[in-house]
Write a structure and sequence with these properties.
The protein is about 70% helix and about 0% strand. It is mainly alpha-helical. A hairpin with a 6-residue loop joins strand 1 and strand 2. Helix 3 packs antiparallel against helix 4.
Length: about 500
């Protein structure tokens, strides 16, 4: 571990890594502090840029934007009762009442301190857990890894309680789209309809820009959001929370545990971690009646859990090469472009990169907190920017980005089509993560199963003859059975389909 830390500190000597770290953190805070945008839009827009950067700098830029977005999203949640991102919803429950009670700086300080602790704890878990898991995964065969990818897909579907059918349909759509183009084994064209531009398949960048950036742009353009509040006076004194959070150690570290656990599991994400952390904190509190009225434990639980998710979500990506949600799926494309193969061999072939990533993740939390302590008063004013103006700016950037990636008008048309789909899914409150994971995990699963079946001579018993594959299969069947059971029980309780 000491050797890894020293090696990681050496990687921090690259000026471009610091430019990416600070730049990504600033942009992430800004996008998080503007309600309705969030880091997903920024990541989609910057993804093509990272392809021209060194791997560590590119990943650092995206991670900085991702992590800082959750920090920044707490600012409007506390000051104007409008969450900057979807994962800051529960922060409004106690953050805004505390701010209205005359303590906005205390609420913000608690949010920053909780986010910092959650992020650092998750990075430590990543440093401790990723390498052993990768070492174990070296004993897995292609069939085992293919089943792990299939398990990730199943987890994505069952994690969206109440939207399982829609998630399954979108996952299937993503899997189908991933098959378009020339398949690698025999070079035969699939679903190209005798066109040449579809031989390369549906470009992932165009899909991501469409779903996340253009879809969000349409949402903002048609938005009728009304800003309420905004009269909380911002003062100095944002350091007090870094002492106060440790007055609630059980809530603090239990919430970090929820964030880490939910982050490692594919498809679960920040909101579920935040929900479990908040409800558990309220149930175990000596003063549960204060929750929703400005309880510091509510802010601590919410912000600690959601900021512990991003680093821990890297565990399955780095150790197994399997992304668990849309952000790590985007990061996987950066790895692939630079010829880095995440998984069992990563820690042997790219030790410098892994060590550098660890150190940048730790430094990232420090940089974000320093930026927030010095700039919160100005950052809070960003929430008053009109939605329609933001939507037009994002739309223009997304259209330019979709064309400039390959300089093909067809990519822009695909991006617009997926933008309409993303807008429709947002309006219907249907998750978009399954379609992205279907696109990314589909080729991974296909490659592993092809290799596994080839080595086994097409013998289907390989699924149950391998212990790891059998365990994955049992878990998959159990999860599907439980999801069906829950759906049947829910239908019996509510036969009319009305809650």
């Amino acid at each position: 571990m000491i050797g890894t830390i020293i090696l990681g500190l050496q990687q921090l000597g690259d000026p471009m890594v610091w430019v990416a770290l600070v730049g990504g953190s600033i942009l992430g805070i800004i996008l998080g502090a503007i309600p309705g945008i969030g880091p997903g839009v920024g990541i989609a827009l910057l993804l093509p840029v990272t392809y021209t950067m060194e791997p560590l700098a590119g990943i650092t830029l995206l991670m900085g934007l991702y992590a800082a977005g959750w920090y920044g999203g707490a600012i409007p949640a506390i000051t104007i009762n409008t969450p900057g991102t979807g994962v800051n919803v529960l922060t409004t429950y106690d953050g805004y009442p505390m701010a209205k009670g005359g303590e906005p700086q205390r609420a913000l300080s608690l949010a920053y301190a909780s986010s910092f602790v959650g992020g650092v704890v998750a990075v430590i878990v990543l440093m401790v857990a990723a390498w052993p898991i990768a070492s174990l995964s070296r004993h897995l065969t292609s069939i085992d890894l293919g089943m792990a990818a299939l398990l990730a897909m199943v987890l994505v579907v069952v994690a969206h309680r109440g939207s399982e059918l829609a998630s399954f349909a979108l996952l299937g759509s993503g899997l189908f789209i991933s098959t378009i183009g020339l398949e690698t084994a025999y070079g035969s064209a699939r679903y190209t309809f005798d066109t040449t531009w579809m031989l390369a398949g549906v470009p992932l960048i165009a899909v991501i820009l469409g779903l996340f950036a253009i879809g969000q742009a349409f949402t903002l353009i048609f938005s009728n959001r009304q800003i309420e509040g905004g009269d909380a006076e911002m003062k100095r004194g944002l350091l007090g929370g870094f002492v106060e959070v440790f007055k609630y150690p059980k809530t603090l570290f239990r919430s970090a545990g929820f964030g880490v656990g939910m982050g490692v599991l594919p498809g679960v994400g920040e909101f579920l971690a935040q929900f479990f952390a908040y409800t558990t904190a309220r149930a175990s509190s000596k003063t549960p009646e204060k929750f929703g009225k400005g309880a510091p434990e509510g802010i601590i639980a919410s912000e600690t859990a959601n900021n512990a998710v991003p680093p821990s979500a890297l565990v399955p990506l780095l150790s197994l090469g399997i992304p668990g949600e849309s952000f790590t799926a985007m990061m996987l494309t950066v790895f692939i472009i630079h010829g880095i193969d995440p998984g069992p061999t990563l820690f042997q072939d790219n030790r410098e990169f892994v060590a550098g990533l660890y150190m940048t993740l730790l430094a990232m939390n420090v940089v974000i907190v320093v930026l927030l302590l010095g700039g919160t008063r100005w950052i809070a004013k960003l929430s008053s920017i009109p939605d329609r103006l933001l939507g037009v700016i994002i739309l223009c950037l997304a259209l330019v980005g979709s064309y400039s990636t390959n300089y093909r008008l067809t990519d822009t048309i695909i991006a617009i089509a997926f933008g309409v789909l993303g807008f429709s899914l947002r309006r219907a409150n249907i998750p978009m993560v399954p379609i992205i994971l279907g696109l990314v995990l589909g080729p991974i699963m296909e490659r592993y199963f092809r290799q596994g079946f080839g080595a086994a001579g097409g013998d289907l018993s390989v699924f149950v003859s391998r212990p790891a594959s059998l365990v994955f299969l049992i878990v998959i069947v159990t999860l599907i059975a439980l999801a069906i059971r829950n759906a049947i029980v829910g239908r019996r309780r509510d036969p009319a389909g009305v809650s």
